[in-house]
Amino acid sequence: MVTREGSPSLQVRALAVVTAVLLVASCGTAGPAAPPRSVSSPSPFASAMEGPPPDDPWPRTSALTPLPPPDGPWPETGQLAVYFCARSTVFDACDDRGAATPGEIRKVRALLGGAPEVEKVRFVSQAEEFRRTREALRDRPELLEGADPADESASYIARVGPGDWRALVRRLSKAAGVSNAFVIRDDYWPGKADVMVQLCPRADLSEGQGGPCEGRGLATLAEKNAILDRIGDLPGPEKVYFQARSHQAPMWRRRIVPEEDFAAYLPEVFYVKFTTPPVLSEVRRALRGAAGVLLVGPVDATTKDRRL
């Protein structure tokens, strides 16, 4: 439910955007995108122990010194989201008006149909969005008091290929009945790493939900080195990369159009490439209870708990 004072679904929307960027390597109605063309790795894992540290200071108290993220290549594919005005909303484009009309929604669909970079369009109704909100807040029923599907935003979700995404987002954002629109570029990590280990960020979007980073800030250097030691004890790590604080803003600018500032919520991340990809549950078991870990997940979200 979105209100001008801020509400569960607005919080969920912000969290969903960040989650989409951080957790989903290939997302959208068309399924996983093809991985970007391969590039030579900057260094073998042996060099990761001896080579220069990333640009953030890294005291050598762990056996491993991780590499900074590689430069690319970046995929020219992504996911487009177009949200519509609801009965109540926080977006300026929806001031002094009600929900988007069926005619306005049809016109946006026509705009999408005429855009050469757009494919696999799917409509998400207010009722479906309400079900998602209810599922996301199933452990916080008090936040759903007074919630109404009429206050949720319907949307179009589509895959996009190469093109002028900024111009596309501008056209869609100006359409009557649209509250906001954005594109999230597919991640470039598939093929470069198998597992990501997200660390506690400066600010926690799940505040109040009892998560592993509740009531604390960034992972400390001692915690990072302890995490690296656990990674080093796993069978077959080939490379370890570290996305430091200094990498967050430029990585974010590559991922979303138009740019938004979620820097406080973006966690630092270890990315690990294995010689023989393990079962994800084995990696999670090895890092269970490690201080400073937000979550452990696959770089390619389609792998789930299968062997990566």
TrEMBL record:
It comes from the Bacteria. Transmembrane segments: none annotated. This is FtsX extracellular domain-containing protein. Keywords: Signal. Residues 29-48 have a biased composition (Low complexity). Residues 80-179 form the FtsX extracellular domain. The keyword Magnesium does not apply. Pfam families: FtsX_ECD. Residues 29-72 are annotated as: Disordered. Residues 1-30 form the signal peptide. The keyword Signal applies.
